[in-house]
What does this fold into?
Amino acid sequence: MAARSYYVLFDRTATWGHPGVPQVLAVHPQRDHKRRTFSFEHAPLPLPAMAQSWLIHRGCPPDAIALAPLGPPPADEATRALERRLAGNGDHYAMGYSYTSDDPEDIVIVVALRALDERAPSPFRVVVEEVDTETWTHTLREGGFDTLGEAPQWCDDRLTGESGPLPPVRPAAAASRPAGLPKAPAPRPPGRSR
It folds into this structure.
């Protein structure tokens, strides 16, 4: 038996607990065979891709964490691409708020994130997973916000059915620079001259 394991679990009991709590658990057991003991870390997270990211950043090989769907399959390539990006670089963000609604009339998960890099474009993000109960698929989309208050407000508005479309994520400055233009010189430390 391996000394370390990695699991992404669906918590069926969460729906009966406090409204809105995450229904996905990332679990990382560690065994000490000599002492015949074990310890584990775990984290409730709103999206399977976020659970994958949490486990990858605790040593799980990225190619070993593929999941059987924990719910409806992705509806499109945009959903699959965002799931891969969240699993791969989810450690670039801190989760500030999430709400999971399993209301059969509107199955939705909203997550507000803050970029850990203060220079990131659209430093506050919202990720929204919506389930289409007719096709039994889900979509995952991301929007970008400039201020702390805007992201959770959009989430609240989405949960009450009053939100507009997600604003686009601003591209990074390097990506928006026209081709062929040189990069700006790196800033020099103060007090040094050429």
